Amino acid sequence: MGQGLSCNPTHDHHFFRAVQTGDLESVECMLQSEPSIIHHTTAYERLSALHIAAANGRIEVLCMVLDRLVNPDLLNRNKQTPLMLAAMHGKISCVQKLIEAGANDNETDLCCICFDQVCTIEVQDCGHQMCAHCTLALCCHSKPNPVTSCMPSPVCPFCRSNIARLVVAKSRDEEKDKENQSKSKRGPRRSRNLSEGSSSFKGLSSAMGSFGKRGSGRVADEPVDKP
């Protein structure tokens, strides 16, 4: 049975509020009186009870909902799963429980800085990945050295190694394609340059270029909708 909207928004609101606050007794009572409510979502964000419990760290409610649901990978309006929301909000126990319940943790690689956007940029030579927004912030918001008045070259926020260059990160599907191509003795895909593709990548390329000019030449260094 799929997700759907209820013709009784007030009843739904009470249910989602109980999930959000961790009112286990009320949640259980409403599920017993109307089992189908577990498949309902909030009106705008399309958040399920599982999304709300995961985002708020309500582990007992989460377990109760999981016991009644077949699919732990429900998507909200922004194509986010309960596992993604639990990770974004730092609800580790919910993350672990969802993975134990079979939630797909390989669908996307979320940026480990913001836990919001998918990793699209790879730092070379270290290979760490970030989303375009965090990479742009890293490159554009560095403060000048008070002694030399020069802009410091950006470094990888994970290992602090110098950033030689930025490339578009390959998705899991692309990596699988590359493996298949290698097996069939085809040439591997060429990495795309940041000057190709979307305006976000072009902006990153410009930002990195400006650091090169100023530096030494080589760039191194709400879960419930309100009624």
UniProtKB/TrEMBL annotation:
<feature type="compositionally biased region" description="Basic residues">
    <location>
        <begin position="183"/>
        <end position="192"/>
    </location>
</feature>
<dbReference type="InterPro" id="IPR036770">
    <property type="entry name" value="Ankyrin_rpt-contain_sf"/>
</dbReference>
<feature type="compositionally biased region" description="Basic and acidic residues">
    <location>
        <begin position="170"/>
        <end position="182"/>
    </location>
</feature>
<keyword id="KW-0040">ANK repeat</keyword>
<keyword id="KW-0863">Zinc-finger</keyword>
<keyword id="KW-0479">Metal-binding</keyword>
<keyword id="KW-0833">Ubl conjugation pathway</keyword>
<feature type="repeat" description="ANK">
    <location>
        <begin position="78"/>
        <end position="110"/>
    </location>
</feature>
<feature type="region of interest" description="Disordered">
    <location>
        <begin position="170"/>
        <end position="227"/>
    </location>
</feature>
<dbReference type="Pfam" id="PF12796">
    <property type="entry name" value="Ank_2"/>
</dbReference>
<feature type="domain" description="RING-type">
    <location>
        <begin position="111"/>
        <end position="160"/>
    </location>
</feature>
<dbReference type="GO" id="GO:0061630">
    <property type="term" value="F:ubiquitin protein ligase activity"/>
</dbReference>
<feature type="compositionally biased region" description="Low complexity">
    <location>
        <begin position="195"/>
        <end position="210"/>
    </location>
</feature>
<dbReference type="InterPro" id="IPR002110">
    <property type="entry name" value="Ankyrin_rpt"/>
</dbReference>
<dbReference type="GO" id="GO:0005737">
    <property type="term" value="C:cytoplasm"/>
</dbReference>
<keyword id="KW-0808">Transferase</keyword>
<feature type="repeat" description="ANK">
    <location>
        <begin position="45"/>
        <end position="77"/>
    </location>
</feature>
<dbReference type="InterPro" id="IPR056760">
    <property type="entry name" value="RING_XB3-like"/>
</dbReference>
<keyword id="KW-0677">Repeat</keyword>
<comment type="pathway">
    <text>Protein modification; protein ubiquitination.</text>
</comment>
<keyword id="KW-0862">Zinc</keyword>
<protein>
    <recommendedName>
        <fullName>RING-type E3 ubiquitin transferase</fullName>
        <ecNumber>2.3.2.27</ecNumber>
    </recommendedName>
</protein>
<dbReference type="Pfam" id="PF24921">
    <property type="entry name" value="RING_XB3-XBAT31"/>
</dbReference>
<dbReference type="InterPro" id="IPR001841">
    <property type="entry name" value="Znf_RING"/>
</dbReference>
<dbReference type="GO" id="GO:0008270">
    <property type="term" value="F:zinc ion binding"/>
</dbReference>
